[in-house]
Write a structure and sequence with these properties.
Number of strands: 13
Strand order of the largest sheet: 7-6-5-8-9-13-12
Structural class: alpha/beta
CATH architecture: 3-Layer(aba) Sandwich
CATH class: Alpha Beta
Helix content: 25-40%
CATH topology: Rossmann fold
Largest sheet: 7 strands, mixed
CATH superfamily: Vaccinia Virus protein VP39
Length: about 240
């Protein structure tokens, strides 16, 4: 009997049910939480309580979901491309009958189409909306990938692009190939660069008109709401218009 009780306690402690509460709330899935689960993206950095234990959204997933809804980007008939889709966002957007929604990634399972971002198999001027978050820092030829994103964006459409940004100038070194060195220098073992604020110029070079959007400032949330949703503070998102 005691052993069964211990098993039940262990199960509950390792279950998402253990996170139920009323302090926090995930805006993506709507679950009320006493705390977010630990998220550890890099073996050299400490983890932080940032992941929704139910839908597995992260800080950046939650702020972009709030932004898309605030700006009504998912209203009306739209053709949307989602690169390396976050499962929680994918689940929500797939329910929307007004969105012709296509997901793609080079290796991820469950996407509509496996493709390289440097060679997208779509017509030019095809998508009203593109969301590409934390992908370009993994791609060696990011200039070609950005060019492809611009090509398949429709005139009058926009691409929301987010990458980790640190400092003013992008740092990259093709000689750095080991997981340990990439993790130390670029923030993660599968990253090939650390972007600086000059990412804006890289995006403009192909023809995008770029608006730098700082989260959570663009959401006009109170400090209490920011903490309740556990949104990253001072994170840069690039809103890229093709005009």
């Amino acid at each position: 009997m005691k052993e069964n009780v211990k098993r039940l306690i262990r199960f509950f402690e390792n279950s998402p049910l253990a996170y139920f509460g009323f302090v926090h709330s995930c805006p993506v899935c709507g679950t009320r939480l006493k705390e977010f689960a630990m998220f550890k993206p890099s073996f050299s950095r400490p983890g932080r309580p940032a992941e929704c234990p139910f839908c597995h959204s992260y800080e950046r997933t939650r702020h972009i979901w709030l932004y898309m809804n605030k700006k009504k980007l998912l209203k009306g008939q739209k053709r949307m491309l989602h690169v390396a889709p976050e499962p929680s966002l994918m689940k929500n957007i797939k329910r929307m009958s007004n969105i012709n929604y296509i997901t793609t990634d080079f290796s991820m399972r469950g996407v509509d189409l496996r493709a390289s971002l440097t060679d997208l198999p779509f017509y030019s001027n095809f998508f009203d909306l593109i969301y590409c978050s934390n992908v370009l820092e993994h791609i060696e030829n990011d200039a070609l990938a950005i060019s492809e994103l611009f090509r398949v964006t429709k005139y009058g459409g926009l691409a929301i692009i987010q990458v980790p940004v640190k400092g003013e100038v992008t740092f990259e070194d093709s000689k750095v190939t080991s997981d340990e060195e990439r993790d130390r220098l670029f923030g993660q073992c599968d990253h090939v660069r650390y972007y600086g604020k000059d990412i804006k110029q890289r995006l403009e070079r192909v023809g995008f008109q770029v608006e730098e959007c700082k989260m959570p400032d663009a959401l006009n949330l109170s400090e209490g709401e920011i903490e309740r949703y556990r949104i990253a503070k001072r994170e840069l998102v690039h809103i890229c218009y093709k005009t």
